[in-house]
Amino acid sequence: MISAQLRKSFFCLFSKKTASISSLTVSHLSSPLPLHFLFTTVAKPQPCENVSDKNCNSIALFLKENGFSDTQLEKVMKVRQRQLSNASLEKSIKPKFDVFRDFGFSSAQIAKVITRDPTILCYSASKRIYPSVRFLLDLFGDIDQVVKVLVKTGWFFSTDVKKNLSPNIELLKSHGLSMERILLLLSFFPRTLLTTTERLKRGVDKVEGLGVDASCKMYIYCLWASVSMSNEVWDSKMQTLMSLGFTKDDILKAFATMPIVLTVSPAKIKRNVEAILATNRYTISSITSHPAMLCFSLEKRLKPRLRILQILESEKRIKQWPSLSAVYAYTDLRFHECFIGPYPKLFKGINPPTSRKKKEISQNNP
Q1: What's the pTM value of the predicted model, to 2 decimals?
Q2: Which of 58, 163, 343, 344 has its CA 20 to 30 A from that of 157?
Q3: Helix 248-257 to helix 219-227 angle, to the nearest 10 degrees?
């Protein structure tokens, strides 16, 4: 019979926690009350000291009238209330909206971009916003794509985009990356291209040092992973993998297949690899073929499932262990159906997790 400790692990594995999200409504924006009284949240914005609440209210009304939802308005004003209280609606705020409109942005798009990073309202319309949007439009030629990029990160307005981005683009082109792939990198991982040219060059060297060619489909993901960590962290992960028995070719295979594995901490890499190898049923080759395994929780997913397979083997219920993908990639429900459900006497007390579809049916039919 399955142990109480293992049963507890599976109860934990199959339980789902639902986070409660408090709702907020911004109403009566024409009220003469100071702005900090307009928000009814648990953590209210602190009143501005020695600033004009009336000025702050006028900006809030302007944003509301220009398509900002209550939620968007609440975020903008909470993040930048003090600065906006000192800003001039006519001289500072409206010109920024005019720049976006002149480029063809809709009110909804402007609200989306500004909500992503309210600091935009503090940047110069002529020195930061205009040249940044102009440069991105010249690159992509499509406003919708520019909006997607700006929503990814507001860093484009915090720096001279043309001055800092152009050298990085030229660097990648010189290493054989097509402009199409560069734009893809900019769309998915804009911060990778907004880093310094020196750091980007180090990232390129790391990727090419592992043998990943610019023609590889996963190249931009590999580059993102390498740029996101320092040389010290990168070297630590390489040393960890090699100490566990991985060769350079093994690391290349795993990295090229699933670049995100190298964003996992060395300690977690070591724990997961050692647990898998300790079964004597999987090898380094198995792990390099399924590198995503390194990203999963050892205690909540890998260990309980490995223990189930060990019990099945000891009870002669399976002749050989399944592919490593069954250990980490199967959903809770599928794993239960394949390895627990068929043996109710062996695994008493472990009930199948409720599927999302069944939950929806039960909620719709109380």
Answers
A1: 0.65
A2: 58
A3: 110
Q: CA 166 to CA 315: how far, in whole Å?
A: 64
CA angle 164, 167, 168 (to 5 degrees): 85
Per-residue pLDDT of the chain (366 residues; tens, 9 = 90+): 444 444 444 444 444 443 332 333 333 333 333 343 333 333 344 444 434 567 778 888 999 999 999 999 888 888 777 777 778 889 999 999 999 999 999 999 999 999 988 888 888 999 889 999 999 999 999 899 999 989 887 777 887 887 888 999 999 999 999 999 999 998 888 889 989 999 999 999 999 888 888 988 889 999 999 998 888 888 899 999 999 999 988 988 888 888 888 889 999 999 999 999 999 999 999 999 999 999 999 999 999 999 999 999 999 999 999 999 999 999 999 999 999 999 999 998 888 887 554 443 343 443
Nearest Cα residue to 304 out of 73, 25, 7, 91: 7
What CA–CA distances, in Å, run from 228 to 195, 204, 225?
10, 12, 5
Residue in this structure with the two tokens 């060619």, named with its chain if needed: 213
Q: How many CA atoms lie within 13 A of 225 on its CB side?
A: 24
State the DSSP string of 254-269. HHHH-GGGGGS-HHHH
Whether the CB-CB separation of 295 and 264 falls below 8 Å is answered with yes
Integer Cα distance of 267 and 265 in angstroms: 5
Burial of 223 (0-12, 13-18, 19+ CB in 10 A): buried
Query: To 5 degrees, how large is the angle CA 182–CA 214–CA 329?
Result: 90
Q: How many CB atoms within 10 Å of residue 231?
A: 13
Tokens representing 19 are 């986070």
| DSSP character at residue 352 | P
Long-range residue pairs from 345-349, CB within 8 A, at least 24 positions apart, any chain? 346/1, 346/2, 346/311, 346/312, 346/315, 346/317, 347/2, 347/308, 347/311, 348/1, 348/2, 349/2, 349/7
